[in-house]
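Write out the 3D structure for:
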Amino acid sequence: MDYQMSQYCVVCKEQRLFTKPGITHTLHFVITFFTAGSWAIIWLLLTLDRSRKIGYRCTTCGALSKDPERENYGPFVTNLIKAIIAIILVIIFFFVIMLLLYLGTTPI
């Protein structure tokens, strides 16, 4: 789902329609379902992080807009989100290995 807003474009020098892409929630829902809810945390973090990073673009010339909704928390929050995602992926990997060992098969 794309987000839209009308704003003055400094390149076109006119009022124009600006859009920014949304998140593909269907794909994230399917992944969340197959990982028994583990992906929901990553999905939430990606949604929050992406909404801050991606700005609106003019549909005519492609110029970036100054998005009044955008907040920039700096690299600290971005790195924190990446670290949390990495930890969650390691935990999921650990549980998959433990499940394989429990079932009597070896991953190697």
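DSSP finds three helices and three strands in the chain.
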